[in-house]
Each structure stands twice: as structure tokens, then as C-alpha cells.
Amino acid sequence: MKIAAAASIGCLLAVLFQLQTPTSAGIIAILSLQNTLVSNTVLVLHLYAAQSVHPALLVNELLLLLTGTSCGILMNLYMPGNSAKIRRAQSELEQIFRNTFHRIARDIVMDKQLACTFFDLSDLDLILKKLEKEAHENQGNTLLSDEQYFVKYVEMRKNQKLVVEKLCQNIRLLHDVPIQAHAISHFIEDVSIKFHESNNTQELMQKLTEMQTSMQKEPLPVTRTEFENRAVLYRILYDLEELITIKKRFIETLTPDEIKRFWNTSQNCCQ
């Protein structure tokens, strides 16, 4: 609808202004809605076809450019971009994260002969690439509204995905299921339930700190296996701390206006 409206209005205005090749204004309007610099090529080809740089022709091309780009910009200002597609991809991404944490929480307390030895995170990679592409296109096609939020959001989730990779690797290092692993499993399950953009991380960070303090007060390991398992558990806790800290730093970059515009503040249970 945006493309049809911009092209029609651009052509109509060019006809009213009595410009040569008025359809070019419509083409430029279409190109102005896309993330490209291609509009200039249309004008250069006109000059090449005319074999002239007569001042009148240059003025005509300038007016075509102004007419077409103005229509494209106005359509972007007053008509929605691809934010709906971004939100759908965002919802899909967060659901994949939740499913992954649920599997991790289950496997950390499962018999190591039965637990999954490989976590396939390829779905996360695919949806992150899709979301990153949509976020940059949305930012490039919007003039007045600052859509930097989605770009920052994608970068935050990409960093968290790297932490999840480390978390999965560390879980595979456990020889058996230490008693402390059950508390960590419950915490990871909590992360899974509360994983969403509008969580401020305060509750999760507090719970994690309490769990770290509790583990530090426990008796020292006796056997070599206990020592190795305890070391792995601490690495897992550090991974979880990094995961939450990445989100916390993302929140610190947001303005009150961004939080008001992009967060559903009624959902105060998410990570």
C-alpha cells in the first residue's frame, strides 16, 4: 500500500509540475521506500539518454528527485514499516531461547548417560540473522522515529546466545548430578519462564547472588570428582551471571521514551 500510494502520488505531482518523464518520479518514490541509493541511477540514465547536461534538463531531474523522494519519505513518516515483522521474529526468538533454557534445566539434573550431549542452537542463529536484517532495514527506512532500539535489542540477544553456547559446553563437563545442580536447575527454569524483553533483571540477579552466596558457605569438596563438579557449577553460575548482566547493560542504554514505546510494562515477569 505504501509503494502504490507513493508511486501514484509521485507520478501525479510530476504531471502537475509538467516535468519530463513523470513516471520516473514514481520510480524514485518506490526506491526511496527501500534501503538503497539506486535513485541516482535513474537520473543519470536520463542524462545519458539525452546526451546533454542542459541546465533545463538538470532542473527537471532535480525536481523529479525532490518529488519522488518527498513522496517516499512522507509515506515512511505516516505509514507503518516492518515493525510487525520484527515483533513476530522477536517473539519467535524469545520462544526458542525459553525452550533452550528449559532443556538445559532438565538436562543438568538428568542421569549423565541419558542427558543430551549436544545442544543444537542453529535455530537461534537463523532467527537472529533474520531479526538483525529486519531491524537494520526498519532503522534505515524511518526518518523521524528513532528505531535504534531494535538494533540494540538484536545485539543484546546475539551476545546472550554466545553465553548460552558456553553454558551448554560447561554442562557437558559434569560427571554426575551434584546436589547443588538441582538449585541451579530451578533457577534456569525460572529464567526460561521469565525470558522476555521487558524484565528488568533485578529479581533474577538477586536470586542468583543468593545462590552464589549459599554455595560459598557449603563444605569444601572431598573427592576429586566432587571438586571438579563444584568447579563446573561455579562456571555455570558465572555464565548465568553474564547472561543477566548483558540484559542489564542493554536496559541501561535505553531512554525512558524507548521503554515506554517498546516495552509492554504490564509484563513484569520477564528476562
UniProtKB/TrEMBL annotation:
Pfam families: ArAE_1 (PF06081), ArAE_1_C (PF11728). Keywords: Cell membrane, Membrane, Transmembrane, Transmembrane helix. GO terms for cellular component: plasma membrane. It is a multi-pass membrane protein. Residues 85-248 form the Putative aromatic acid exporter C-terminal domain. The chain crosses the membrane at residues 62-79. The keyword Transmembrane applies. The keyword Transmembrane helix applies. It is found in: Cell membrane. This is Putative aromatic acid exporter C-terminal domain-containing protein.
